[in-house]
Amino acid sequence: MIVPDGPIALIINKIQRQMQIRRYSSYQPIYDRDLKFLGAASTYPGRNSLYSYMHHYFHHHCPKPIHEHRRYYSLEQRGFGEDAFHAMWYLLLRRFKPAKCLEIGVYRGQVISLWSLISRLVGFEIQVHGISPFTPIGDTVSKYRVEIDYYADVLNSFKHFNLPGPKLLKALSTDAEAVEYISDEEWDLIYVDGGHDFETALGDYRLCKNHLAPNGILVLDDASLDTDYHPPSFSFAGHPGPSRVAREYADKEMRFLCAVGHNNIYQKL
């Protein structure tokens, strides 16, 4: 069958995407289990099956506030991400209860506000930190909207959910003050979601790995290219830079726990 180019192809792709989302989101007995994070990773060891489980978990097991948070960030292009990631963070934080958490590349605060929300739901103390330029600085694969006050936007989102304000540093991760900020602490959880170019992603990975607490968790975003993950039409496998860091460094230097979509999750050895 020859699929036409142009507007008709876009309509067909949109319909196929909606049908696939509906299929993944529908109730499926094989995934109807409220597992702990590591239990889910061992029960569904394949990247594709674990992604399906997390997507199903979001739609059928996640608490209502998690759904409301995802809905808020889905409106007006407030955030990227996928439904499965909200379930991933919920199960990950419920299992490890990290006390000191850092995100590199905050954008509009979807992940760090989710951390704070989950800590309130689960019942543990958390310190949420973020390093980001809070400007529309992009890279070779990313461009961002120029009309947003990103710093104020993050704080407003925390206020929207009645969450305690995060500790934010306005800087690139390569700036001296950012390097010092990361180096001065031992972090229980770091989410590396900054620059996507290889050298930047590698620098972030090396610095963050060295300053994780014992058994600390590191999550590499956009890092599932060159794996057996075959994303559905509404998902995304990642970018070359972070994926190369994962394959050439993190896979060899850390304990790989699992991957949910393009998020690769490691533990410090």
Report what the structure shows.
With 269 residues, the protein is of the alpha/beta class. The protein has a domain of 172 residues: Vaccinia Virus protein VP39 (Rossmann fold, 3-Layer(aba) Sandwich), CATH 3.40.50. It is built from ten helices and seven strands. β1, α6 and β2 form a beta-alpha-beta unit. α4 packs antiparallel against α6. It starts with 6 loop residues before the first helix and ends with a strand.
Q: Helices and strands in order, then pairings?
A:
Layout (H helix, E strand, L loop, with lengths): L6 H19 L11 H7 L3 H14 L3 H11 L8 H14 L3 E5 L5 H13 L4 E6 L17 H11 L6 E4 L5 H8 L3 E6 L5 H13 L1 E9 L19 H14 L1 E6 L2 E5 L2
Parallel strand pairs: 1-2, 1-4, 2-3, 4-5
Antiparallel strand pairs: 5-7, 6-7
Helix pairs in contact: 3-5, 4-6, 5-6, 9-10
Report mean pLDDT, rounded to a whole number. 94
Which sheet architecture does the biggest sheet show?
7 strands, mixed
As a percent range, the share of strand residues is: 15-25%
**What percent of the residues sit in helical stretches (DSSP H or I)?**
40-55%
Q: Give the helix/strand class.
A: alpha/beta
Task: Enumerate the spans where pLDDT stays under 50 for 5 or more consecutive residues.
Answer: none
CATH topology of the domain at 96-267: Rossmann fold
What's the helix-strand series?
HHHHHEHEHEHEHEHEE
The level 1 CATH classification of the domain at 96-267 is Alpha Beta
Distance between the termini: 51 Å
> Which second-level CATH architecture of the domain at 96-267 applies?
3-Layer(aba) Sandwich
